[in-house]
Amino acid sequence: MVKPNRDETLETLLVSVNRLIRSALQATGHTTSTAVWRTLGILESEEALRLGELATASRVSQPTMTRLVAGMTADGLTARTVDPDDSRGQLIQITDVGRERLVAWRAALTSTVGPLFEDLGDDDWDVLHHASALIAARARTETTA
User: What is the CATH number of the domain that holds 26?
Assistant: First the structure.
C-alpha cells in the first residue's frame, strides 16, 4: 500500500470531518442555522467582538451578521454592550443562555456521531484522542483531558 502524502492526509481529514459534521447536523433535526452555532462558538472563545469582526470571523457579510445577532439577542443567546474603546460602537458577547444552548447543541452532535465509533477498541480511541488533541492545539480549541 502506498503511503498517502501529507496534503492527501489533510484533505481526507478536512473532507471527512465536514461530512461527519454535516451528517450529525442532519441527524439532530435542529433547524437553527449553523451560522448561529458557529458565531456562538466564536464568541465563546474570542469573548466580545464588534459586529464587523464577528462577521469576518464567522465568514458572513455584515448585513447577515446584523440579522443573526438581532435574532440571537432576541433569543437571549447574545447581548450587546458599549465598546469601552469607542462609545459609538457595540460589542457582541455570548450570554449564559447562549453558552448552555451551545453545550447542548454540541452534546446532540456528539450523541449522533457516537454510534459510528462504538465498535472501536481502546487503541483506536487512543489514536482518535491523540489526533483530536493535535488538531485542537493547531485550531486553538480547548479540550478536556
Answer: 1.10.10.10
